Amino acid sequence: MHHFERRDGVLHAEAISLERLAAAVGTPFYCYSEATLRRHMRVFKAAFADLDPLVAYSVKANSNLAVLAIMREEGAGADVVSGGELYRALEAGIAGSKIVFSGVGKTKEEMAAALDSGVFQFNVESENELDALNEVALSRSAVAPIAFRVNPDVSAGGHEKISTGKAEDKFGVAWTRARDLYARAATMKGVAIKGVDVHIGSQIAELAPFERAFERVADLVRALRADGHAIERLDLGGGLGIPYGEPAGGAGDPPHPDDYAGLILRIAAPLDIRLIFEPGRMIVGNAGVLVSRVLYVKEGEAKKFLIVDAAMNDLIRPALYDAYHGVKPVALREGDSEPYDIVGPICETGDRFARARPLPPMKAGDLVAFMSAGAYGAAQSSQYNSRPLVPEVLVNGERFAIIRRRPAFSEMTAAERNPEWKSA
Q1: Low-confidence residues of the chain: pLDDT under 70
Q2: Which CATH superfamily, name and number, covers 103-277?
Q3: Are 355 and 321 in contact (CB under 8 A)?
Q4: Which of 69, 107, 243, 279 has the highest local Cβ count within 10 Å?
Q5: Are 396 and 67 in contact (CB under 8 A)?
Q6: Which residues pair with 197 in a beta bridge?
Q7: What angle do CA 145, 149, 152 make, to 5 degrees?
Q8: What's the rounded Cα separation, in Å, for the pair 87 and 116?
Q9: What is the rounded CA–CA span in Å between residue 99 and residue 79?
């Protein structure tokens, strides 16, 4: 459920029309519904209410400080994968004791910063990382709480680029080496074994891959405990998909969090273990839209193009993953639908949001909304073609605030310098 609905034919975010927001901040822009963000986090937490898990919101999905502050107010921690995300989480007021540090390429500087902030857990993804973390912790007279991210070799995810749990993926340690690595970690004075971590992919639309992975990791927990390790935490990652509104024949609606919770409770309850979750997309995905204005309607030889002022640098998912996003005219238009290729101004053939998408007759100046854009939209945006990052707007009922403004061209170049030997 989300709070983007039509009133008198015009698409609104909660009680504010997207036309009003476009007039106030210019296009393109991202718009988030605070009510939707809060509702999704509450639905997820309610599904596991009896277990009191750590819900560590996945910062990579949407890292805006205002969004992170809402997550903190809803009682969530944070899952981070870089020093920058750690900084953002702390800046938003999330306690270090509720932060999980994941990622395959943690630097020693990032490890030190995380130790200083008192993070809840490091999810270790290689033997070399384990050695580096032990070294950094000893140099600071600290002990790093760890879980190994174990790769269960389970295929999942809607696209090969977001599947993370197969043997050939870069993430996690090999299933066959897990027990040896835990034994080695137990000999180190700079780390303390706390748990096991698993994450198999993103935008997963069925429960079966989760069931296979979680049953394997539950068996591993039992084996590790038999080996003498005090495994008290089980991090089951994120990955639960959201409905993107694909037409018939698409992936279909993913499971409800209650069904997901039922599966996990059946597998994890006998372990008597603290659970950790890292939801991202399912919290923020349908809480945001990207609003863009039609620049031109171009008649090609074989198709009609809708050229909009948003581009792949603003929302790269269609170009990167062939991802589907619903597209809606902000104001209802009369007439029979016709197919448009929806494209942006970037000088790349891949700057395409949709092929042959049926829409009512459109004209220059019309507004369109790319739906389900709250996750991996603004967070993955860039300034390619020297296009400024677009504003992000948060709506609360009848109020709105710009939570990231559009930079001026001069701000985009402010950090750049000619070398000293260049003449003025």
Answers
A1: 1, 155-171, 247-252, 423-424
A2: Alanine racemase (3.20.20.10)
A3: no
A4: 279
A5: no
A6: 149, 235
A7: 150
A8: 12
A9: 6
In 10 A of CB 210, how many CB atoms? Answer: 24
290 beta partners? 30, 370
* Topology annotation, domain 4-31+286-409: Lyase, Ornithine Decarboxylase; Chain A, domain 1 (2.40.37)
Dist CA 213 CA 33 (whole Å): 33
pLDDT digits (tens, 9 = 90+) for 299-356: 988 899 999 999 999 999 999 989 999 999 999 989 999 999 999 999 999 999 999 9
Active site residue 347: yes
From 316, 293, 313, 319, select the one nearest 387 (Cα to Cα). 313
Q: Is residue 81 a contact partner of residue 103, using CB atoms and an 8 Å limit? A: yes
- Give the tokens for residue 341: 């290729």
Q: Helices marked H in 153-234 — which ranges?
A: 178-185, 208-226
User: ∠ CA 401-79-149 to the nearest 5 degrees?
Assistant: 160
Read off the pLDDT of residues 106-119 as tens digits, 9 standing for 90 and up: 999 999 999 999 99
Look-up of token digits 């009133």: 7
pLDDT in tens, 5-45: 999 999 999 999 999 999 999 999 999 999 999 999 999 99
In this predicted structure, what is the pLDDT of residue 165? Answer: 41
| Radius of gyration from C-alpha coordinates of the chain | 23
Residue whose token pair is 């970037």: 346
| String of DSSP letters for 102-171 | --S---HHHHHHHHHHT-SEEEE-SHHHHHHHHHHHHHTT--EEEEEEEE-----SSSGGGB--STTSSS
Give the Cα-Cα-Cα angle 46, 52, 55 (nearest 5 degrees).
75
DSSP 176: G
- Residue of 347, 386, 398, 417 marked active site: 347
Distance, in Å, from the CA atom of 194 to the CA atom of 234, rounded to the nearest integer, reads 9
**Phi, psi torsion values for 14, nearest 5 degrees:** 50, -115
Domains 4-31+286-409 and 103-277 share a fold: no
Tokens encoding 212:
């296979």
Question: Residue 395 is encoded by which pair of tokens?
Answer: 């709506």
Residue ranges of the domains in the chain?
A: 4-31+286-409, 103-277
